[in-house]
Amino acid sequence: MTGRRFNLIKLHFHYLFNFRLKYFYINNIQFNYILEFHSNSKTDVWKYVTPLIEYCETIGIDIPHYCYHKNLSISGNCRMCLVELKNSPKPVVSCAMSAKACLNNGEIYTNSPLVKKARENILEFLLLNHPLDCPICDQGGECDLQDQSFFFGMSKKRFYNFKRIVNDKNIGPIVKTVMTRCIHCTRCVRFANEIAGVEDLGIFGRGVSSEIGTYVTKTFQSELSGNIIDLCPVGALTAKPYPFLGRNWELKIITSIDFSDAFGLNLQICLKNNKIVKILPGYNQNIYTTNWISDKSRFSFDGMFSSGRILHGFIIDGKNNKITSPFSWKMIFEEIIYFLYFQDHLNRHFLVVNSLIIVFDQNISIEMLNLLMLLSKKYSFILLRKIEPFKLDNELESKFLLTTTINKLKILSSNLCFLLGINTRYEGFDFNLKLRQRYIKGNFKVISLGSLIDLTFSISYLGFNLKILKSIIEGNNFFCQELVNYSNPLLVCSSEIFKRKDSIALIKFLTILKNYIRINNNKNWNNINVLNTSLSDVVLSYLNNFKYISENDLKKFSAFYFINSNFFISNFRKVIELQLLNYFQDEQKIARILIEQNCGMVEFFDKKIKEFYNIFSYFHLPNSVLYENSGTFITTEGFFKKSVKIISSDEQSKENWQIFRKFLYYLKNLSFLNNIKINTRLNFNNNSIVNLHSFMGFHYYAIKNLTKLNLYYNKKIIDLNLNILLKNYKFKRNKIFETKFRLWLDDFYIGGRDFYSKYSLVMIRCSKIFRLKNTNFNYIF
Asked: How far apart (Å, rounded) are the C-alpha atoms in residues 401 and 701?
């Protein structure tokens, strides 16, 4: 026993001195190798495969570089990140070396004389053909080459040959190219191949003749093409729509959210002289990296401030079609109140109730929607309507949220994804990027039931008919075997499919399919994920089941009130065209008014509509755009996102809640005869937004205790009622339309659900090129 104990003590000291006391040095600073790279903590797993340059940045040591990027593959062609390794015959490339392997009993130096001399030589060669036009370069002031030349470059020049000139490439309306400034870091090429999935960019030629561009004359057609502007470390790739607008030290940067889709990604808004100059991607705190944003998120903000926007209130006479002089807010609201008061008394005489229909879209904020709900509760003649149909079961959050992206393990542990009637590339580009990265890792299959689309990675198509989904549920499809054999399959569908007439039957199909997947997989696994297409689709599902506008609403109405409504929506156009075709007749020919509050855009007042609907007057209420408002939204992942007021409103335009507070203030002075609901006391004398939030109930929540006494239904009563129901009644059969899943988004740039993109000149130019390339009319100009 003594000898055994001695051997154990010997092994213990051998382990202690040979492993515990194992160190490495960075710039003569001592670190424990075992604690850094052999820790059992889950937070230190990233150190095992991280490059040396990234590890040095985490401990506060910055190494200059050009080609390296955290989210791209390693190329190692700029050689700016050289460091000195002890006992190495030459400097090593820190971006291509593993930190765990390089620091094993090693010593590195990042600022030694050898490293400084190597950086001077590299910068000398980089500036050999680079033009010295920093004062006229858009990248000036935020250029990595300019900054590092001041720190590590030489103060004199040894080469006096003529500089090489490279022809500029036209790669689209987004990116401006000055290829003479290119240093061949290949960041743009790797982004196009690895992230965007559009392999159009590449490097061709050798040595001095090397160039970056497209192999054939074409544009870089990708919805993410604007990100290469941020990736370029020099002024070779800059923003084409807004050249020479200002330097970075002149800009004020404020954090906001993206309005173009339902994810609400974080953005950086750059302001100059109370105007938005450019938009940059923000930081994602969930994955600790900078976001990739789409071209619509980056450049469509000019649609908010379109030249056709009218920023003063006015009234159009329906009989003479004459625009009166600009009205003040007080005069406009008095005219509206007089009309509603007159209609109320007129309805009393005719024993009818003609409603004021307020129509809103899917981009409304929580605060504004709460105001509308309180207004409809107080006045019975006010009806709230969505502009689009949306039939969805909103009992549980999991039935209308995209929970896959919240939990990363769901995508990593799954090896099958079933896309149902969805175009993830254009409806949710952020989710499409996650699917593509999972596909690149391998052992992941994506199957789509819908239109034939290009998602930048390989997909197996089942078809585009609902009959195929029915065959899958019945077990008569080969795809059923894959659902059983693959582990943790994901089912992702678009919220657009719930706008079909047979959406109730479709929901039942998905529920049955979910139960089948749970039986063959983990029972706690939530398979169905809904990708919403608008910023406030989730808000509408949380608060209420709002009705949508239909032809029945147009039979008895006295006024229409539109709030940021997109009149190109198919459902609204169908209702209007049915009336123009005399599909149904008005029961009464009464004078009506039209109120439009659409960010200063006047587009609905048409001569035919005026005649058929007997529009007496048109009221234009100029409200503010998103970045001139403050509001709260809920993303498709279930996160709260706050949009703050960034710039001040121009002329007469006001925020949405301010307009409705005034509207309620004038309504409280009237007692309507046809109002059958109890009037609640609403006081809006104070202009404070804090009192408004208190009024809407954000500080108080109803609390109820749920006990067994509340559940007066027991199992016996339920079974008894169910048997009686089955004997005496027949269940309604849900009709299924065996039609294809409609690809609603045919144009990413101006065909989305956001309100501003169709007014953007940049998006219109992008749409023109997109349509010429992706349609059969390529040669028609």
From this structure: 23
Architecture per CATH, 22-125: Roll (3.10)
| pLDDT confidence band for 720 (50 / 70 / 90) | very low
- Residues 6+ positions from 84 with CB-CB distance below 8 Å: 91, 92, 108, 109, 110, 112, 114, 115
User: What tokens appear for 125 in the block?
Assistant: 């060669």
pLDDT digits (tens, 9 = 90+) for 319-352: 666 677 667 888 888 888 888 888 888 877 777 7
Q: Which of 447, 423, 547 is nearest to 495 (CA)?
A: 423
Domain 314-391+546-630+649-677, CATH among 2.70.98, 1.25.10, 3.30.70, 3.40.50: 3.40.50
- In 10 A of CB 446, how many CB atoms? 20
The partner residues of 254 in beta bridges, in order of sequence, read: 269
| First and final C-alpha spacing in the chain | 95
Q: Which amino acid is at 266?
A: N
Cα distance between residue 489 and residue 445, in whole Å: 10
Closest CA to 69 of 315, 300, 77, 61: 77
Interatomic CA distance for residues 446 and 781, integer angstroms: 37
> Which single residue is written with the structure tokens 């203030």?
665
Rounded to the nearest angstrom, the gap between the alpha carbon of residue 630 and the centroid of all alpha carbons in its chain is 18
Beta-bridge partner residues of 109? 84
> What pLDDT, in 10s, does the model give residues 230-267?
999 999 999 998 888 888 889 999 999 998 888 989 99
- Enter the tokens of residue 707: 């006990």
Contact (CB, 8 A) for 563 and 594: no
For residues 632 and 369, the answer to whether their CB atoms sit within 8 Å is: no
CA distance to 239, 255, 428, per residue, from 281 (Å): 14, 10, 16
Nearest residue to 68 (alpha-carbon basis) of 59, 58, 77, 55:
77
Instruction: Work out the percent of the chain whose per-residue pLDDT is above 70.
Output: 80
Per-residue tokens: 533: 């297409």
Residue 381 in contact with residue 672, Cβ under 8 Å?
yes
Q: Which amino acid is at 344?
A: D
- In angstroms, the CA 163 to CA 157 distance is 13
Specify which residues 270 forms β-bridges with.
253, 278
Half-sphere exposure (CA, 13 Å, Cβ side) for 55? 26
List 290's β-bridge partners, or say none: 283
Amino acid at 380: S
| 682 alpha carbon, distance to own chain's centre | 36
Residue pLDDT, tens place only, 433-444: 999 999 999 889
Q: Exposure of 264 by Cβ count < 10 A (0-12 exposed, 13-18 middle, 19+ buried)?
A: buried
Angstrom distances, CA of residue 655 to CA of 15, 106, 311, 597, 698: 69, 62, 12, 11, 20
Q: From CA 675, how far away is CA 307, in angstroms rounded?
A: 42
Question: What tokens were used for 662?
Answer: 């005034």
Q: How many other CB atoms sit within 10 Å of the CB of residue 594?
A: 21
What stretch of H or E contains 209?
Answer: none
Contact between 438 and 178 under an 8 Å Cβ cutoff? The reply is no
Closest CA to 567 of 543, 602, 537: 602
Domain regions of the chain by residue span? 22-125, 314-391+546-630+649-677, 397-540
- Output the CATH code of domain 397-540: 3.40.228.10
Q: At what angle do helices 144-152 and 113-126 cross, to 10 degrees?
A: 130
**Rounded distance between C-alpha atoms, residue 750 and residue 221, angstroms:** 15
